[in-house]
Specification:
Blueprint (H helix, E strand, L loop, with lengths): L7 H4 L2 H11 L20 H7 L14 E4 L8 E2 L24 H14 L3 E6 L9 H14 L4 E6 L8 H6 L4 E5 L5 H4 L5 E4 L2 E4 H21 L3 E8 L8 H10 L4 E6 L9 H5 L6 H11 L5 E2 L10 E3 L22 H31 L5 E5 L16 E8 L2 E9 L5 E2 L2 E2 L1 H10 L5 E3 L5 H9 L3 E3 L7 H21 L1
Parallel strand pairs: 1-3, 3-4, 4-5, 5-8, 8-9, 9-10, 12-17, 17-18
Antiparallel strand pairs: 1-11, 2-6, 6-7, 12-13, 13-14, 15-16
Bound molecules: FE(8)-S(7) cluster (CLF) and iron/sulfur cluster.
Length: 494
Amino acid sequence: MNQPMISLESLLTPIDVEALEKTASSGGCSSSSCGSSAKPEDMDEATWDRIKDHPCYSEEAHHYFARMHVAVAPACNIQCNYCNRKYDCANESRPGVVSEKLTPDQAMRKVVTVANEVPQLSVLGIAGPGDACYDWKKTKETFAQISAEIPDIKLCISTNGLALPDHVDELAQMNVDHVTITINMVDPEIGAKIYPWIYYNKRRYEGVEAAKILHERQMLGLEMLTARGILTKINSVMIPGVNDEHLLEVNKWVKERGAFLHNVMPLISDPAHGTHYGLTGQRGPTAMELKALQDKLDGGAKLMRHCRQCRADAVGLLGEDRGQEFTLDQLPDTVTYDPAKREAYREVVAKERGDHVAAKQAAVAEVKDVAVDAKLLVAVATQGGGRVNQHFGHAKEFQVYEAGPKGIVFVGHRKVEAQYCEGGWGEDATLDTVIAALDGVEVVLCSKIGDCPKDMLTAAGIRATDDYAFDYIETAIGALYAAEFGSEVSAAVA
Ligand code: CLF
Ligand code: SF4
């Protein structure tokens, strides 16, 4: 039977349409872009095929694809000093935080409902709110039910690693191709400052002894996954004064053992969360400290820099959370999976990505052609599709890119505590917090900005412009960089 004609607009929510509408009108698959692939040059086709729709494993994919987490695994076998699972806030984006826990049956209903309504959905993850490998029965049953109903959804799991070696073979049998282990240390002396206790083989261990067992199990789990060809990502929490410099060593160890990606995340610490670190005043790193460490790690295990430190019940593109639209009380009692929207979306995105890749290559070449050493840190307001397509005042976060001799490199994102423009007008006090979040950034690109916030940003040494509205991010940055530094070259030549 022929696929019914489905328009882009009918596939997406109003916000999604705004994000991609420029695409639809930009000529679609231009002749220059046909056949383009976003595959990094140093990656083989088979690996690319496994990650190209995974928003965490591919930075490029996160502009187009969404993940959802189902909170089916509340039990945990260790205590991390940065975790308190009792604290919940619907607006809090932080691992371990959920609004409601689900049974595998409820999770199934939720995933099918989301798959029918969010065409970008490509990955189902179980990331707690406890430990997915320790609370194994529920994790396994959930994966089994959902993969039987939606066979093309990627299964992803996140674990502290202590119980991981016991389940690696089952993960392989269930085609779980993406596993994340949180590894914060390879030295148990440092581990004892992060983990007060673990529960292992029906016994509680504390201090260095606990950290040593955890470390050995994490390394074993990683080696077992690598031996089975499963793509493993390592998450590390950067805790200033505890393990920040030590993460260089962690990076080395995990690279040697075959980790696919290393994701260094900032410690989130606030007394209101009731965590040990929050209550004892342990601070998290600043954005620039995190960037400096990530820059030092460049050249080791490949880095992930676009992590959003998701809740254990997150739904949507990274950086947006639609979880509150899919709470249990809003789910239908019965629901049947309909693949039409997801399939149609994938066709549209395949063309869009080709076009984007060609535009990106041209922009990177433009920056390299300028041939100066200067770097430019640019923050972009975007709501997906790889475009400058969000009003300054609506941005809850900015994506940050560095343009310079290496081309145009994504270096992270900056969350803002509150959007500048809520309810139709801007708040000066909020703008101060946005300016603080943009520390070190030289230029802000957005689809619209008023004179007042623009002037205040200028006074703080940050230029903002909507001149590149709806361009691809890299196209905009390439043009900006050439305008800024190209004249230096011309002047030098002249
Ligand atoms: Fe979820 Fe994690 Fe799978 Fe992604 S999140 S289980 S790998 S599907 Fe992604 Fe969220 Fe960062 Fe995790 S942005 S916290 S890295
Ligand atoms: Fe919390 Fe996860 Fe640590 Fe368990 S492993 S204490 S759920 S952060």
